[in-house]
Amino acid sequence: MRKGDEILLGETDCISAPKQFSYNNVKELLLSKKIVNISYYRELLFVMEFEDNLSLELFHASSYFEGWALRGDDGFDVFTLPGGEVCY
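User: That's the sequence. What structure does it adopt?
Assistant: Structure tokens below.
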């Protein structure tokens, strides 16, 4: 999670300091924000840009495990398989 060039929260924060950081922090920051742009760079990076210069960057970092997942309305999910292939 970024605001401009500053990292506000990353996965490592949530793993290393779960009492201080969690995915709920991201939810709180983005819940009322409008999405202004979505970019997808094949098998590398998925970026959602929000108002107030906030962005959520998702990238796959494993050849063995599944990576990130986004869950939407009506059961629509977007996720990455081991190796980074994006599925929905």
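The chain has one domain: 2-79.
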